[in-house]
Every structure is written in structure tokens, then in C-alpha cells.
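User: Please predict the structure of the protein below. I'd like the answer in C-alpha cell form so I can feed it into my own downstream comparison script.

Assistant: Understood. Taking the following sequence of 154 residues as input:
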Amino acid sequence: MKGLIQRVTHASVTVDQKTVSEIDAGLLLLLGIEKSDDPAIAEMLCRKVIHYRIFADDQGRMNHSLLDTGGYLLVVPQFTLAADTRSGTRPGFSVAAPPMQAEALFREFLVVSEQYLGEGLVGRGQFGADMKVALVNDGPVTFLLEAGGGPGVK
């Protein structure tokens, strides 16, 4: 499972010209789900995202997590993040989870996120939809986090 997190001052998801979710300061998470992922991996990545220290302390150092700041989390399912790009000039999707598995794990991720952060602090994209994602990246600060599957990944 891969999560591309971006520290934002604002982010939103639009489907069919209607805003389905938006947040103020916090994290935008693009979530890529692979065949080898399961609920334990979803929880592991969720915990990592929520506790990852990328918000500034009083000295301007990245010492605070989303949980510390009380910020928002916007989770967007991102099928293409699970692409294999190691060779050629066209992405392969053989490691991406099939839609049913991916949607179940996306929903599981949302449940765990709300358990950590509380209801009202977690926004969501629409699984399987053609989404337009808008954001104001703060910094910019962007990190790729992984959990489960690959070699050397914990």
C-alpha cells in the first residue's frame, strides 16, 4: 500500500462538477492499493500517515503530526499510484488490487482514520469516479509512504 501525502492549507475533490469533499489545513493523501494489501497493512499505513511528523513546531522544525495539530485528512483513492513503472514508457497495473478488494481496503482505511482523528476530520474522494483534486500544497511538503508488500518495506 502506498500513500502520497501532501501538507495542505486547503484541498478538495470534485466529481461531475460537484464538490464531494474538502478540507482546510491538514493532509491530502493519495492512496494506492495493491493485491498483496490487507486490513492490517491498511491500519499500518494509516497509523504512519497520522503520526508522520511533517508539521512545524515553534522552532520551524518538522516535529508535529496530523494528530498533534488536530488537522484534517482528505483520503483520495489513487489507482495509478499502484502502477509498476520500473521498465518501459507505459505503466503496468498487474500489482494493483482489483476494484472490489481496493474499495474494501479504501473503506477500511477511512474507518481507521476516523478512529484515530475523530468524525468530521476525515474527508474522502469517491472510489472509481473521475475526480478533480485541487490543493494548495503547504511548503511544498510531499512524501511517499509505504506499508506492506515490497522488499525492505515495513
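That's the full C-alpha cell string. The chain has a mean pLDDT of 94.
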